[in-house]
């Protein structure tokens, strides 16, 4: 009869029913997970973009408020960007700006707090290192050498390694450890072989410690810390 499947078609249909009965639940779950994953990823992208836009607006508000001298608005906007978008690049930039503003007006505690927010939250390594170096400078000025030394234990990648060694050498001098100071100055000197201005500063520091003004080689440091 025309309305009935032939034997072969019926067999194929039975196989399909059996397959779906065996695997239908699994296939449905996989499809659901895929759709959910795509939707979640799109929602995450939307949330990240929205967060970045909000952070950019708050950063601009901080910049304009700094220029106008509205420090209360600076503090308010910075507090908001820290609470809503702490790990964005904009939040780190805001932290560095707010730290400088507070440092310039003698508010060291507020400056250190802003720098710590960058160190603890920023996802950008360079911004974290810059914030750490500025925090170390403030701690030096406050003669809080132990705290400064703790911060110097942070990794200083690539271009920042020389600055880290220079600051560590300064700290060794404060502790009257000339040998380690010279060793770190020598490393800093070699790290900045393409920066003549910076090398001149390191040369001056080494000269003041009795190191002759000639080619500095780390392996030439004697037990007294002076080049042989």
Structure description:
By secondary structure, the protein is mainly α. It has two domains: 53-144, Serine Threonine Protein Phosphatase 5, Tetratricopeptide repeat (Alpha Horseshoe), CATH 1.25.40.10; 156-228, no CATH class. 75% of the residues lie in helices and 0% in strands. The chain contains nine helices and no strands. The protein has helices at residues 7-68, 71-84, 89-104, 108-121, 125-141, 145-152, 161-174, 178-191, 196-208. Helix 4 runs antiparallel to helix 5 (125-141). The chain is elongated, with a radius of gyration of 31 Å. The N and C termini lie far apart (109 Å). Keywords: Cell membrane, Chaperone, Membrane, Transmembrane, Transmembrane helix. It comes from Simplicispira metamorpha.
What distance separates the N and C termini?
109 Å
Characterize the largest beta sheet: strand count, sense, and whether it forms a barrel. none
CATH architecture of the largest domain: Alpha Horseshoe
Class based on secondary structure composition and strand pairing: mainly alpha
The overall number of domains is 2
Helix content: over 70%
The succession of helices and strands, N to C, reads HHHHHHHHH
Q: Write the CATH homologous superfamily of the largest domain.
A: Tetratricopeptide repeat domain
Radius of gyration: 31 Å
User: Roughly what fraction of the amino acids lie in strands?
Assistant: under 5%
Pfam family, one: TPR_21
Protein name: Ancillary SecYEG translocon subunit
Family: Belongs to the YfgM family.
Membrane topology: Single-pass type II membrane protein
């Amino acid at each position: 009869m025309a309305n009935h499947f032939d034997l072969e078609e019926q067999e194929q249909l039975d196989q399909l029913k059996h397959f779906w009965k065996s695997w239908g639940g699994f296939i449905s779950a996989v499809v659901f997970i895929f759709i959910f994953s795509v939707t979640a990823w799109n929602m995450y992208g939307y949330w990240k973009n929205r967060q970045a836009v909000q952070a950019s607006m708050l950063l601009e508000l901080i910049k304009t408020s700094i220029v106008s001298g509205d420090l209360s608005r600076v503090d308010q906007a910075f507090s908001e960007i820290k609470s809503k978008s702490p790990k964005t690049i904009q939040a780190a930039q805001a932290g560095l700006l707010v730290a400088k503003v507070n440092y310039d007006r003698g508010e060291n505690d507020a400056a250190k707090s802003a720098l710590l927010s960058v160190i603890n939250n920023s996802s950008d390594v360079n911004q974290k290192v810059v914030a750490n170096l500025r925090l170390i400078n403030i701690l030096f000025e406050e003669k809080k050498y132990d705290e400064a030394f703790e911060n110097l234990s942070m990794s200083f990648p690539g271009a920042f390694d020389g600055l880290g060694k220079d600051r560590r050498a300064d700290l060794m001098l404060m502790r009257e450890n000339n040998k380690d100071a010279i060793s770190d100055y020598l490393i800093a000197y070699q790290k900045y072989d393409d920066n003549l201005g910076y090398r001149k500063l390191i040369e001056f520091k080494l000269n003041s410690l009795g190191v002759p003004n000639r080619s500095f080689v780390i392996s030439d440091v004697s037990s007294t810390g002076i080049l042989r």
